[in-house]
Design a protein that fits this description.
The complex is a heterodimer. Chain A is of the alpha/beta class. In chain A, 31% of the residues lie in helices and 25% in strands. In chain A, strands 1, 2, 3, 4, 5, 6 and 17 form a seven-stranded mixed β-sheet that branches. Chain B is α+β, with helices and mostly antiparallel strands. Helices cover 22% and strands 24% of the residues of chain B. Chain B has seven helices and 19 strands. Chain B is elongated and about 90 Å long. The relative contact order of chain B is 0.12. The chains are: A alpha/beta, B alpha+beta. Chains A and B meet through loops of A and helix 1 of B.
Chain lengths: 463, 408
């Protein structure tokens, strides 16, 4: 039967398409239902295009400071429209790459919006597809505004990342609401393209999920570059005019008015759980609106699984992809290794980059853990001095008794690449001593990791 | 040249070992570090590993046989190589021998161990963190079932292993009418040790027994109140914890009973270490709660559960089951009214605790129902006289009947 598969996956984002490939590898006939482009938010309007734009921003910033390196770059001008078009090409390449992977693995891609039916069926338009083994829900999430204070996304003066990624020209000024990864990355991008930026965060510090020292370092770095950062701030009122937005902001007992040509909403995301037949099939949600899953990623209705953003935080592509692999193996009757949700790296690709894994120092304190913090600043690292990228540090929190790496935090150039040494260490239960015993090449930024490990043992040699 | 496989001393006190199971069979390729067989020592079942690469060319000792440490149990060599069964001296192993043309009839060989020196052959797959925790907790990683990739022992396995099994261990299999009237089961090493040690008790030691009935109503109330207070914190107090604490505190007042009989002298202990008899599969062992008189009920509870858990998994270190100054045997959970326990020499006494049962008791001119138990003390008359033992038992009774007295 043409419309019958072993597994049907709703959503072709990083959770869904990876799940499909793993299903195919395991010999399951698989279909992916996608209403838009393959690759989902990540590939098309998320991770991938923003990284392209961030690199444009990096180059722009770099060229402003070349003189000291003996290179004269002349009069540097920027054009967001050009950078944007390049980022679109990068996204399209990636989306085509996913398409190719679907073909290579003989996965059927059904264009349209899937609606769940009983008996492990999925309706797309007028067609009904049947899953013999399982239906996997990987419908992802989307941006959201804050209509309660008058900030409904209007796509001109109140925008989301969806619009920011397609702008031909930058606004003169931009207020960014939310200083999580998205807000911080767009602040970095637009600032490099000459936009006056104000970042407003409701929680007491920017990058609220990161270690407090990471937040501090970023605040200082941003302010140095002329980006205004206001944390612990509450937007009490928003006045949206045709060509500007005025925000009444309360922070630290002070009242303030911020006017910008546009507001970028970067505070949280809404999951795509509507109109896909969840309720009709008895699939329950959690209090926070995510799909409720058990430890096998199965929803409250047997045979229906959920992965990625819809299945709960952290809403990160790599977490979704791993869930996709694990759920495929479960469906195929294997016993995959359980996901360690406390070992999902978190990365913000602003400059300097922020990457972390495990607990923050404050969390160690809250849990009353007996820990030691080992720290090493890049200002003492030879490679960092050579490239002039001395901002930031490596911090490793180790359990005092056994040396277990409770958490690790890197702020600095290439932090996003370096965090994986500590991810591997944690996954394999290496202690700080194994990390330090691995010989690190000199001179590298990664030496700072070995030095932070040593510092936690009270024997850093380079500081 | 072929290499001999010897019965190795797998524990410090091991003199002989019973070959429980051959994991490799004649003709199987083996690599240095791979498990050849399971061997039961005096306290635990351990793995005998290969010290050379090649093929298991001859098995000398069949399964179920006990041989002294040092005896040859098998040979490893090249395929087709001949060895004489008597075990003539072989030259150092020809390590290059490869099972190239050898047929591999039985299961695929275990994941190849890294080419390593023999010293590394005992390598256990475990994460560095698990190794550290195990070392600290005295857990033998070889006996832990790993749940990591490829059976690797990880933190969770080491931490999760001990404090389990609150229910009494299943000690004997059911009787089944199989048509065969009986089954002869050879003595296991631990059974031999028990036989040897306890025969040196009841025979030579002049035992006498004292029994008293103890009202546990107030202890039960105290326990309920304490557990209510502990609430979600976990680590509930059991009757056994209260009894161990009371036995220890009563001993503090009666040093005459906290003693060891030694051939020409009596050693009266100034420390109170309580041995706690724990039933394990095919035997019993008495882990020791050291300085039990100085520990809180919670500490005793945590420690006794942890020790009992590891005892059942045979993971006690020798120093954890030796050195008691007095013992308690509690068969309360087995619905035993009262019983006499056998003294564990050189200790001079042991208290046997029966089940707590609701009994009708006269109180004034009425009959009330009270929860009570029988405690029977076995005394070594060479150390403890009747009145001495009775005085101790009276103190124990008072402590349990009025748990507040423990605070004095």
């Amino acid at each position: 039967m043409a419309n019958s598969f072993d597994v049907i996956i709703l959503g072709g984002g990083p959770a869904g398409y990876v799940c499909a490939i793993r299903c195919a590898q395991l010999g399951l006939s698989t279909a992916v239902v996608e209403q838009d482009k393959l690759g989902g938010v990540c590939v098309n309007i998320g991770c991938i295009p923003t990284k392209a734009l961030l690199h444009s921003a990096y180059i722009a910033n770099l060229l402003k400071e070349t003189k000291d390196f003996g290179v004269e770059a002349g009069n540097v001008t920027t054009d967001y429209g050009v950078a944007m078009k390049r980022s679109r090409r990068v996204s399209d390449q990636n989306s085509k790459g996913v398409e190719f992977l679907m073909k290579k693995n003989k996965i059927t891609v059904v264009k349209g919006t899937g609606v769940l039916q009983t008996g492990k069926k999925v309706k797309v338009g007028n067609d009904v597809y049947e899953a013999k083994k399982a239906v996997v829900i990987a419908t992802g999430s989307r941006v959201k505004g804050i209509p309660q204070i008058g900030l409904e996304i209007n796509k001109t003066t109140v925008i989301s990342s969806d619009e920011a990624l397609f702008m031909e020209k930058v606004p003169a000024s931009l207020a960014i609401i939310g200083a999580g990864a998205v807000g911080m990355e767009f602040a970095d991008i637009f600032s490099a393209f000459g936009v006056k930026i104000t970042v407003i965060e409701a929680l007491p510090r920017i990058l609220p999920l990161e270690d407090a020292e990471a937040s501090d370092t970023l605040s200082k770095s941003y302010r140095k570059r002329g980006i205004e950062v206001i944390a612990g701030a509450k937007v009490t009122k928003a006045n949206v005019a045709k060509d500007k937005v005025t925000l009444d902001v309360e922070a630290g007992g002070e009242k303030k008015q911020i006017t910008a040509a546009a507001v970028l909403m970067a505070a949280g995301r809404a999951v795509n759980t509507e109109n896909i037949g969840l309720k009709e099939n008895g699939i329950q949600l959690t209090d926070r609106g995510f799909i409720k899953i058990d430890k096998n990623l199965q929803t409250s209705t047997p045979g229906y699984y959920a992965i990625g953003d819809v299945a709960g935080p952290p809403m990160l592509a790599h977490k979704g992809s791993r869930e996709g692999i694990v759920v495929a193996e479960i469906i195929a009757g294997q016993k995959p290794h359980p996901i360690k949700y406390d070992n999902v790296p978190s990365v913000t690709y602003c400059h300097p980059e922020v990457a972390s894994i495990g607990l923050t120092e404050d969390q160690c304190k809250e849990k009353k853990l007996d820990y030691v913090a080992g720290k090493f600043p890049f200002s003492a690292n030879g490679r960092a001095r050579g490239t002039g990228e001395t901002e930031g540090f490596v911090k490793i929190l180790r359990d005092k008794k056994y040396g277990e790496i409770l958490g690790a935090h890197i702020v600095g150039s290439h932090a996003s690449e370096m965090i994986h040494e500590l991810a591997v260490a944690r996954e394999n239960e290496y202690t700080v001593e194994e990390v330090e015993l691995a010989i690190h090449a000199h001179p590298t930024m990664s030496e700072a990791i070995a030095q932070a490990a040593l510092d936690s043992l009270g024997r850093a040699t380079d500081i | 040249m072929a290499t001999k496989v010897h019965m190795e001393a797998l524990s410090p006190t091991m003199e002989e070992g019973r070959l429980v199971k051959w994991n490799k069979h004649e003709g199987d390729p083996v690599k240095s570090g791979e498990t050849l067989a399971e061997v039961e020592t005096d306290k635990a079942v351990m793995e005998l590993v290969a010290r050379a690469d090649g093929q298991l060319i001859k098995v000398v000792v069949p399964e179920g046989t006990t041989v002294p440490v040092g005896n040859v149990v098998a040979w490893i060599g090249k395929p087709g190589e001949q060895v004489d069964g008597a075990g003539s001296e072989a030259a150092p192993a020809a390590a290059a021998a490869k099972p190239a043309s050898a047929p591999a009839p039985t299961p695929a060989p275990a994941p190849p161990a890294p080419a390593a020196a023999p010293a590394d052959a005992t390598r256990v797959k475990a994460s560095p963190l698990a190794k550290r925790i195990a070392k600290d907790a005295g857990v033998d990683l070889k006996l832990v079932q790993g749940s990591g990739p490829g059976g690797r022992v990880i933190k969770r396995d080491v931490e999760g292993a001990p404090a389990t099994a609150a229910a009494p261990a299943r000690t004997t299999p059911d009787v089944r009418r199989t048509g065969v009237p009986y089954e002869d089961v050879p003595l296991t090493q631990i059974r031999k040790t028990i036989a040897k040690r306890l025969a040196t008790s009841l025979g030579p030691i002049p035992h006498f027994f004292l029994t008293t009935e103890i009202d546990m109503e107030r202890a039960a109330e105290a326990r309920e109140a304490l557990n209510k207070q502990l609430g979600e914190e976990g680590g509930k107090i059991s009757f056994n914890d209260i009894i161990i604490k009371a036995v220890a505190l009563a001993l503090v007042q009666h040093r005459a009973c906290n003693a060891w009989f030694q051939e020409d002298h009596i050693r009266y202990w100034n420390e109170v270490h309580i041995g706690m008899a724990v039933a394990i599969e095919d035997g019993l062992i008495t882990p020791v709660i050291r300085n039990a008189d100085m520990k809180s009920l919670r500490e005793i509870g945590t420690e006794s559960r942890e020790l009992a858990g590891r005892a059942r998994n045979r993971r006690l270190k020798p120093e954890e089951y030796t050195g008691a100054t007095f013992s308690v045997s509690n068969l309360g959970m087995f619905d035993i009214d009262h019983f006499t326990a056998v003294i564990n020499p050189p200790e001079a006494g042991i208290v046997a605790i029966g089940s707590i049962v609701a009994r009708a008791v006269p109180e004034g001119d009425r009959v009330v129902v009270r929860r009570r138990l029988h405690a029977t003390m076995s005394c070594d008359h060479r150390v403890i006289d009747g009145a001495t033992g009775a005085a101790y038992l009276k103190t124990l009774k008072q402590m349990l009947e009025n748990p507040l007295a423990m605070l004095l």
